[in-house]
């Protein structure tokens, strides 16, 4: 991971704490008591939240999106402690909501006690969402910093002030989305939920623990797209911008022999390309010209910032 600890001191014009926002939250919340969370296989395998759940977490997501649970702090605001912060009590609440959603469909296909595996699956699903979403905020921050380093002109704060708002008109195309960054961040997380390979890896965790016929039902839920539909419904209740991730999706419906309506999602790469180009234009502070813009989001690597538990 590149060292950004000296960026604020080297570029104070781009790091005014009165202007730089925490995505989704605005002002920088207290980080007191935060501790590092190592994303190693051993740490993740044994991780569970012991703190009581936060009853305000789910209502908070209706107003703030996933930032009610986990948020990104820029190296502009906390040079020595920048990264992704996860609120443990809120994480437990969201994990239990995932459990409710998954178990509503798959509980009848658990012929043995698999609560230990189910908990691992649910934590994996939730953390994958929160980290993938907030990693996009880091990528935006880094792209703005690269531009600011070249021309010594603040880009990040003016971009946030201009575009971190609902769209002024009904959203029909990616270019119409007001808070495009949040839409793309939610899409990035949702793409895993649509991915059959990802779903198969999740479902395989119950192999050998359940009757083979029930294992197939778990695979059908995660690989066949039913879980993605549930998550699309969950994401769609978030604010404008966050819920506009759906503008990048293709939605296909079919009716089975029992009149069951099957819904499948896939993302539209052309629309995503347009959205990423538009976001890059906004970060750069350039006027819309109608001409094709370069897309710096194509090659952003896969590094995840440091993660902290609050």
Structure, explained:
The chain has 310 residues and is α+β, with helices and mostly antiparallel strands. It has one domain (7-26, 35-290). The protein contains eleven helices and six strands. The chain has helices at residues 7-10, 41-46, 57-64, 88-106, 115-151, 156-163, 180-194, 196-203, 212-223, 226-235, 269-284; strands spanning 35-36, 70-73, 83-86, 249-255, 261-267, 307-309. A four-stranded mixed β-sheet has the order 1-6-3-2. It has a two-stranded antiparallel sheet with strand order 4-5. A hairpin with a 5-residue loop joins strand 4 and strand 5 (261-267). It starts with 6 loop residues before the first helix and ends with a strand. The mean pLDDT is 90.
**General shape:** globular
Distance between the amino and carboxyl termini: 22 Å
> Reading side by side through the largest sheet, how are the strands ordered?
1-6-3-2
Q: How many individual β-strands?
A: 6
Return the string of H and E elements. Answer: HEHHEEHHHHHHHEEHE
The biggest sheet, with number of strands, parallel, antiparallel or mixed sense and barrel status, is: 4 strands, mixed
What structural class do you assign from the helix and strand content?
alpha+beta
Low-confidence stretches: none
Q: Percent of residues in helical segments?
A: 40-55%
| Overall pLDDT confidence | 90
Question: How many helices in DSSP terms?
Answer: 11
Q: What amount of the residues lies in strands?
A: 5-15%
Number of domains: 1
Give the radius of gyration: 20 Å
């Amino acid at each position: 991971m590149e060292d950004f600890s000296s960026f604020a001191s080297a570029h104070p014009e781009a790091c005014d704490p009165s202007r730089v926002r925490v995505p989704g939250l605005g002002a920088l919340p207290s980080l007191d008591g935060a501790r590092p969370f190592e994303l190693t296989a051993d740490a993740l395998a044994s991780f569970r939240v012991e703190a009581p759940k936060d009853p305000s977490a789910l209502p908070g997501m209706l107003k703030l999106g996933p930032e009610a649970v986990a948020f990104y702090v820029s190296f502009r605001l906390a040079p020595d402690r920048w990264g992704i912060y996860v609120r443990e009590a809120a994480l437990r609440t969201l994990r239990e909501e995932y459990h409710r959603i998954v178990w509503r469909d798959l509980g009848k296909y658990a012929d043995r006690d698999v609560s230990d595996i189910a908990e691992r699956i649910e934590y994996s699903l939730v953390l994958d969402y929160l980290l993938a979403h907030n990693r996009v905020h880091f990528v935006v921050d880094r792209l703005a910093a690269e531009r600011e380093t070249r021309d010594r002109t603040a880009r990040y704060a003016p971009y946030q002030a201009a575009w971190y708002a609902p769209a002024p008109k009904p959203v029909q195309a990616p270019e119409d989305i007001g808070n495009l960054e949040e839409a793309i961040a939610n899409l990035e997380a949702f793409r895993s939920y649509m991915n059959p390979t990802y779903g198969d890896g999740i479902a395989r965790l119950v192999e050998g623990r359940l009757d083979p016929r029930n294992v197939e039902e778990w695979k059908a839920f995660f690989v066949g797209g039913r879980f993605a539909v549930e998550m699309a419904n969950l994401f769609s209740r978030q604010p404008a911008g966050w819920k506009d991730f759906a503008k990048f999706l293709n939605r296909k419906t079919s009716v089975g022999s029992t009149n069951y309506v099957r819904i499948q999602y896939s993302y539209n790469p052309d629309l995503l390309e347009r959205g990423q180009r538009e976001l890059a234009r906004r970060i750069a502070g350039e006027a819309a010209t109608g001409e094709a813009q370069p897309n710096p989001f194509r090659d952003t690597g896969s590094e995840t910032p440091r993660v902290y538990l609050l």
